[in-house]
Design goal:
Elements: E1 11-14, E2 21-22, H1 33-41, H2 48-69, H3 75-87, H4 93-107, E3 112-113, H5 117-124, E4 129-134, H6 141-149, E5 155-160, H7 161-164, H8 171-181, E6 188-192, H9 195-204, E7 209-212, E8 225-226, H10 232-250
Parallel strand pairs: 1-4, 1-6, 4-5, 6-7, 7-8
Antiparallel strand pairs: 2-3
Length: 251
């Protein structure tokens, strides 16, 4: 019996932030006058620098907890904890929700769309089925950004950490994406810009990964390193040619 050939790549799983869009990960530099105004309306006496400092520390506390086991938290959880501490009382959802939504809106001003992304995804979608697997604290944020970019139609599945409860590089988020697509790990590749979540995590889950790392800061094999997401089509063509050669040898 001839040896089995390699599994053909049929799907691409994309990270979102830093991969399909540029963004600022800062929780303060975007400017948050609207969020601060709502905080003041609720009775907080903090000045603006104090607001940014205490908000950042509250968020950092949640991050430290998640670093232990890769569990994910929501903006509503952070907002509730923050307002409880600042106001010295438990806030009502009607107070938390507008604060969180305004903060997310102002944070999103740091998201920058990449010229040529629509053309890239249109070309890739001719040969591959596409999905997004993203860490985020806010349900609807990633689908909303995709809709604003006019890219929703290109993606069969969008899996987010906040909806699943686990963030990359937890293995469950990759499994959830594969299950939603109805494929095994060998049928997909993963593309992202963060070494642990977007390279180590997928590789451990059996998904070959490509990392956007133009400054070569990580120990990624050169064939799997991208200077830009726009290099991906050429890399995938080379991968497909290699797979075809291996399949021919196995016959």
């Amino acid at each position: 019996m001839p040896a089995a050939g390699p599994t053909q790549t049929t799907h691409i799983l994309f990270d979102f932030f830093g991969t399909l869009v540029d963004y600022s990960a800062s929780r303060t530099e975007q400017g948050y006058p609207g969020s601060y105004a709502l905080l003041r309306q609720l009775g907080a006496g903090l000045d603006y620098p104090g607001f940014l400092a205490t908000w950042s520390e509250c968020f950092a506390q949640f991050d430290r907890r998640s670093d232990v086991d890769d569990s994910e938290f929501s903006m509503t959880e952070v907002g509730t904890a923050y307002l409880t501490g600042i106001l010295d009382r438990r806030p009502a959802p009607a107070e938390v929700d507008p604060f969180v939504m305004e903060y997310v809106r102002e944070w999103s001003t740091g998201v920058r769309y990449l010229t040529g992304m629509a053309e890239l995804l249109t070309g890739l979608s001719r040969d591959y089925r596409l999905a997004v697997v993203s860490n985020t604290h806010q349900p609807g944020l990633v689908p909303g950004q995709l809709a604003a970019m006019g890219l929703t139609e290109h993606f069969e599945v969008v899996v987010t950490s906040v909806e699943l409860g686990w963030r990359k590089p937890h293995p469950r988020i990759y499994t959830a994406a594969l299950d939603a697509l109805g494929i095994d790990a060998g049928s997909a590749v993963f593309v992202g810009d963060s070494y642990g979540p977007d390279f180590v995590g997928p590789e451990r889950a059996g998904i070959p990964a490509y990392l956007i790392d133009p400054e070569r800061r990580t120990p990624v094999p050169e064939p799997r390193r991208l200077d830009s997401v726009f290099e991906l089509p050429d890399r995938l063509r080379a991968r497909r040619a290699d797979d075809d050669r291996l399949a021919g040898t196995a016959r």
